Amino acid sequence: MRQVEEHFPRALLERYGATVAEAGVEAARAVEGVIALLEALPAPRLSEPVAPGKWTPLEVADHLHRVTLLYLDGIVAARRGERPVRHERGWMADDGALTALLPGAEPRPDVDLATVARDLRSSTAALVEAAAEAVAAGAGESVCHVNPYFGELTPLGVVQMAALHARHHRKRHLDPLRQDAGAQAAPSGAMAPGGA
């Protein structure tokens, strides 16, 4: 495993919308794609690790929720004039897996589908609302999160990141389960915006 030497290009985030409204649509679409996939999996599969030593599908979704809450907290703190929490650069394994230390991002154990779906939808909607309010208040260029892979992010950047993050985990961890289990869910496409 090696630490990322340079932050990833902003163009990867910019694909998810040029405004908070556009990025919010992409984030909501990505979250709904994750939830639809979870709903299509057999119930027992939801509580089994996606791979040895990894989280369960429900824990992956709860992790998305918890990271979205971190982004939301960052917007609130930036609006109060506080400096964002700076996270060290992330790590990449030989197989392309990404790892970063984000306190507060660990999923809760024993989450259920209804709760995690509600929480993920709610935190995503709250993030988009807070980002829109920050932009309307003239704080659209404030740094509110320092991401391990993309560096300093504005309110728009964290909404874009929420969309990319959900698509990343769906593609890497959840889509393969659909194929393994033979579950029928909407096609995921690539990590590009506009898909399921």
Question: Could you walk me through the main structural features you see in this protein, from its secondary elements to its overall organization?
Answer:
- The protein has 196 residues and is mainly alpha-helical.
- The protein has one domain (2-181): Four Helix Bundle (Hemerythrin (Met), subunit A), CATH 1.20.120.
- Helix content is 51%, strand content 6%.
- It contains five helices and five strands; from the N terminus they run E-H-H-H-E-E-H-E-E-H.
- It has a three-stranded antiparallel sheet, with no helix packed on it. Strands 4-5 form a two-stranded antiparallel ribbon.
- Strand 2 and strand 3 (98-99) form a beta hairpin.
- The chain starts with a strand and ends in a 15-residue tail after the last helix.
CATH fold-level topology: Four Helix Bundle (Hemerythrin (Met), subunit A)
Q: Look at the helices and sheets and give the structural class.
A: mainly alpha
At the first level of CATH, the class is: Mainly Alpha
Helix count? 5
- Strand fraction equals 5-15%
> How many angstroms does the end-to-end distance come to?
32 Å
Spatial ordering of strands, largest sheet: 1-2-3
Helical amount among residues, as a percent range?
A: 40-55%
Total domain units: 1
Provide the residue-averaged pLDDT. Answer: 86
- Shape summary: globular
Largest sheet: 3 strands, antiparallel
The total beta strand count reads 5
Using only CA atoms, what is the Rg?
Answer: 16 Å
Blueprint (SSEs and pairs):
Elements: E1 2-3, H1 11-14, H2 20-40, H3 57-79, E2 91-92, E3 98-99, H4 113-136, E4 145-147, E5 151-153, H5 155-181
Antiparallel strand pairs: 1-2, 2-3, 4-5
Helix pairs in contact: 2-4, 2-5, 3-4, 3-5, 4-5
